[in-house]
Design a protein that fits this description.
By secondary structure, the chain is an all-alpha fold. Helix content is 86%, strand content 0%.
């Protein structure tokens, strides 16, 4: 009886792990859709999501939209310039410095736009996104 039960549990666990990862496919499709959008469309979607999450007033929405639009345009430009895959150490270092400068600029701008409660909530959301990104990249490395 125990052997039958253990075999049954083993079969169920194998079938559960053999299922394709639907969440990964959905995420990948969403990312592809975002790549095809214009910076204006991206900024509109992002600011609307932030409005829902942080309960922004109309002036905050407008300030956030302009900030995100600028960021989306820069992102598009960086993506076009990033076609070169083999970067030297100096280029990679400079790219990381620029990315950190942009993060600092974004954080300061968000601090000036949002009230303290909204800013704290935004920071929590950003930390969650960062954790998901790290987890996803770790899983991608393990697949290779």
């Amino acid at each position: 009886m125990r052997t039958i039960l253990s075999i049954l549990i083993l079969l169920i666990s194998f079938s559960a792990t053999a299922q394709p990862n639907q969440n990964g496919m959905k995420r990948q499709k969403r990312m592809e859709n975002m790549k095809n959008m214009t910076p204006e469309q991206q900024a509109t979607l992002w600011s609307k999501k932030m409005t829902l999450e942080l309960e922004l007033n109309p002036s905050q929405q407008e300030q956030l939209y302009t900030l995100i639009l600028e960021k989306a345009r820069q992102h598009k430009m960086h993506k076009k310039n990033r076609l070169k895959e083999n970067l030297s150490d100096e280029e990679r270092f400079q790219m990381q410095v620029n990315m950190l400068d942009e993060k600092i600029k974004m954080r300061n701008a968000m601090k000036s736009i949002l009230n303290p409660d909204q800013y704290d909530k935004w920071k929590k959301i950003e930390k969650q996104k960062e954790r998901k990104k790290r987890k996803h990249s770790k899983m991608q490395k393990e697949k290779k």
